[in-house]
Specification:
Length: 565
């Protein structure tokens, strides 16, 4: 323990966060968290003002995914706390490390329906990794220490710290612990050597083995290990959408994401495989289609840090529990020790490469000059490979999955589990704060961007020059596609009517707004945005009738793809 010092709970909070290496907080002040905000005047933590608490959480989320350290967001009590819930739930669904700190009414007023009181602990419990509510000032240092440890260890996730206002202002002798215990919390850390050996044996005896890399591969930064295993055993690699970018998508063994809007070649090969090494994935319905059809002919090796995921959605013949980077590293070492290295292409790998080449050449895309495929390929052509891309949620998100190749692993992020519209832009701001020296682009749709466009104020006033790349079809595109496909074109509640004008909107905030209506204009707009020192919005009008294809309809299997005709 360090030497005790008497201070307020609010000062202890800031001191504890400084000890955790926090350099910035995204948030909004209010009556119940003003003592915390007063401490910003006496500490070295930068406060970045969001224009909505949900956006503050998304900024912290984007920061956390890129830095792999918990992003921190602040909100006041009552509506401030409830506003932040969607951002917390988004982080929980995608296993993103986050610390959300909310103000609360004084301890003696809790439960009395005080002004701006909400039971945020009760509301948040289903969507956080853990929630704390210290009732005395002296608890705060240990709560913060435990909160950061929980948020970033094992399977990462959001932690809520709800602090009553009198706990913030009361003074107490403070101890800032270096060591602590969390009863009942024991993240799985040791490698599972026995089951890794069994996994190698199963892969070697399979005729059509494949790797399925999920978001856990990215979270653990297991990029080099994944590539070593794939190249040593000559295994084709597909990813979930959240795992997009875990493996370079220009690599000869890469097939891209599987799923509802996965690559045709990825879905085809996944449907033919007889053994899958599934790394850091929860086998969501959007990735695998019907659970029964997916596992019917497959032997599954499931590698995950969270034992609760094993057997939850798919039955696994071999379970390898623990950090996937650690276990993949063990796999690489065992392969070297056993001198196992496949050099000749098997009939399976040849078939995979032929299928990949066929669909790269023959997948039909929109014939117009400004179709989604051509637009996103132009973005990929001009962006440096280390650029970070976030996406909103909708058609543009799935077009990005199909047509934007991730070259440098760990540079592509999206809201996948919760599918939160409005996530991408504030997340891009958080990502840019985490890595200010690389370009950050939010691939957006007009509907999704409209939900958090007021974060332009944050981007401009805080000098965070991100790029918003809007595929603007003036419609809620994914809903419209489903209405065309499943509801006999009965279009209800989806028309955006070209409102607002995004160029004027950007300019009203002091950002740069550019409209690109041809490929030449798009080329110039992207180059302009990359060289700009202010946030830039590129508005790209596209055909509202363009669908995202291939498409695996709900309740069907990966082999039942609807293909463009």
């Amino acid at each position: 323990m360090n030497k005790m010092e008497t201070m307020t709970g609010a000062k202890a909070l800031m001191t504890a966060m400084e000890k955790e290496g926090v350099k910035q907080v995204f948030g909004l002040p209010g009556g119940a968290n003003l003592p915390m905000y007063d401490e910003f005047n006496r500490c070295d933590i930068r406060h970045i003002l969001a224009r909505h608490e949900q956006s503050a959480a998304h900024m912290a989320d984007g920061f956390g995914r890129v830095s792999r350290k918990p992003g921190v967001c602040f909100a006041t009590s009552g509506p401030g706390a409830t506003n932040i819930l969607t951002g917390i739930a988004t982080a929980q669904a995608d296993s993103a490390p986050m610390i959300a700190v909310t103000g609360q009414v004084a301890v003696n007023m809790i439960g009395k329906d005080a002004f701006q009181e909400s039971d945020i602990i009760g509301m948040a419990n289903p969507v956080v990794k853990y929630a704390f509510q210290p009732r005395t000032a002296g608890e705060i240092p240990e709560v913060v220490r435990k909160g950061f440890f929980i948020a970033e260890s094992g399977r990462p996730g959001p932690v809520l710290i709800d602090i009553p206002k009198d706990v913030q202002t009361n003074e107490a002798p403070m101890e800032f612990p270096d060591e602590f215990k969390i009863q009942g919390y024991h993240p799985w850390a040791d490698p599972d050597i026995v089951n890794v050996e069994r996994a190698i044996d199963m892969l070697l005896h399979a005729e059509k083995p494949i790797i399925l890399a999920g978001g856990g591969t990215i979270i653990s930064s297991a990029f080099a290990e994944l590539q070593s295993v794939a190249e040593t055993l000559m295994l084709p690699v597909v990813t979930t959408f959240k795992g997009k970018g875990a493996f370079p998508e220009t690599h000869p063994l890469s097939l891209g994401p599987i799923g509802m809007h996965g690559h045709a070649e990825a879905n085809k090969m996944m449907a033919e495989a007889d053994c899958v090494l599934a790394i850091g994935t929860r086998f969501s319905d959007r990735s695998v289609g019907t659970f029964e059809a997916f596992e019917k002919r497959l032997k599954i090796i499931h590698m995950d840090v969270d034992p609760a995921e094993i057997g939850k959605n798919q039955n696994a013949q071999i379970a390898v529990v623990g950090d996937v980077k650690v276990n993949l590293r063990v796999m690489v070492k065992l392969l070297l020790q056993k001198a196992i290295k496949k050099t000749d292409e098997s009939p399976w790998v040849k078939h995979v490469k032929e299928t990949r080449a066929y669909w790269k050449e023959n997948l039909k895309i929109h014939p117009g000059e400004m179709g989604a495929a051509k637009i996103l390929r132009k973005l990929r052509e001009l962006l440096p490979k280390e650029s970070i891309v976030t996406t909103e949620v909708g058609q543009h998100q799935m077009w990005a999955s199909l047509f934007y190749d991730v070259i440098q692993p760990g540079t592509f992020f999206s809201s996948t589990g919760l599918g939160t519209m409005g996530w991408g832009f504030p997340a891009a701001i958080g990502a840019k704060v985490a890595k200010p020296d690389v370009p950050v682009v939010d691939i957006a749709g007009d509907g999704s961007f409209s939900m958090t466009e007021n974060s332009l104020a944050t981007a401009v006033l805080e000098d965070i020059p991100v790029i918003v790349f809007i595929l603007n079809n003036s419609i809620l595109g994914m809903v419209a596609q489903w209405q065309r496909t499943f509801y006999d074109r009965r279009m209800t509640g989806v028309e955006q009517h070209s409102c607002p004008d995004y160029v004027k909107l950007a300019e009203s905030y002091g950002a740069q707004g550019i409209r690109a209506q041809s490929m030449d204009e798009l080329d110039k707009a992207i180059k302009n945005a990359l060289s700009s020192d202010v946030a830039t919005v590129i508005d790209i009008p596209i055909d509202p009738e363009e669908d995202v294809l291939p498409f695996v309809a709900p309740g069907t299997s990966l082999s039942d793809m609807i293909l463009p005709s």
